[in-house]
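Database export, one record per block. Field names are fixed; values are copied verbatim from the stored entry.
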Amino acid sequence: MAFIEEIKRIKSMKENGKKIPLPSNHFFLEDNSVLAFPRGDGDTRQPYIYDGMMVWAYACGYIRAQEGRFSIFPEVKEGEEPHVAFFANIDGELISLLGMPILNEPAVLSRYTVLADAAVYYVTEVKDYTFAVRVFLSAKKEIHFSVGVLTDRKDHAPITVSSFFNPYLRNDNSSYVLWYRYFKEGRVKDSNTITFYVTEGDKKDCNIVHLGIRQFCAENCEILYREQTTKKAQFNGGINCNLNNAQVARECKIDSPMHCTAFNDYAIAGDVTTIQFLNEARLEYRFAISNDKTEMSGAITDALFEEVNHKIKSTLDFSIEETDCTTFSPETLTAFLRKVQYQVNICALGKDMGGGGTIGFRDVAQQVE
């Protein structure tokens, strides 16, 4: 199924499909995915894993990615700046498409996250527009971000979409300290590509260089303006500004863009793209831990998504037909226990879960007990 059709299907399930209620304004949808509305008393997350690489998708909008001890997008504590963010600017109104960072957004009518088996979907609805960001981990161990937009407007008014990627690419999770920026370089290769080089180690003749690449393409739209920057302070609007300011996304332009950053600031992949379209458009972003460019298109991304089979299977199949519990129905308990089964499989087969290597064993033992 093409990405745009997936967005329409998710909207239909959310509005008209059967929903099994859960605590904290969450629901099981008819395809057993979890519909999560924003809440202030916690968060919901789901892992997606393939061959040792894991992407954690948080309902609030945080994205974490790692492969064992190698941290691609580090864990983010509550309230901290995200390492991946997308913005839309409609008639001067800035909207956070993942939900993080949190902005003052009176134009947002509805925001929700759908945690499905193969991908996570972040949906934001405003007047005349529906935005959706699909995030999935491919069998090539690449992270794909698909941004789709639907509209009923007939005036072909332009909108601007901006993205922000701040990868870590080191074998630890100490996150960003002053010295780290000295060993990370971001460089614009062409109008759609930014590469990263991160040096790890403290020896002059025995260091490791880690690579990263972020690629972009757009379809079903006319690009009116596009520019990129590798300088975090330029994207945010100053060295002491964070993503809540996001000057590039607010102003929809980059003056004197910095196409190479190292040593004097944190290297990032930031861009701004103003598009004009009719009814629907999509923008594709690919992040990989290499410097290898690949051909990109919506069809290629959809084909990769169709091949995703990351849900760790189990020979144990069950369902609950009746229960004495008055709080939850048999359908709710069945769907919940299948999520517990998924968690046990992830913890049993994951790579260096939790950093110390013991959380997976703990979770498996708890559920077996």
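Remark 1: The radius of gyration is 21 Å.
Remark 2: Residues 330-349 form the longest helix (20 residues).
End of record.
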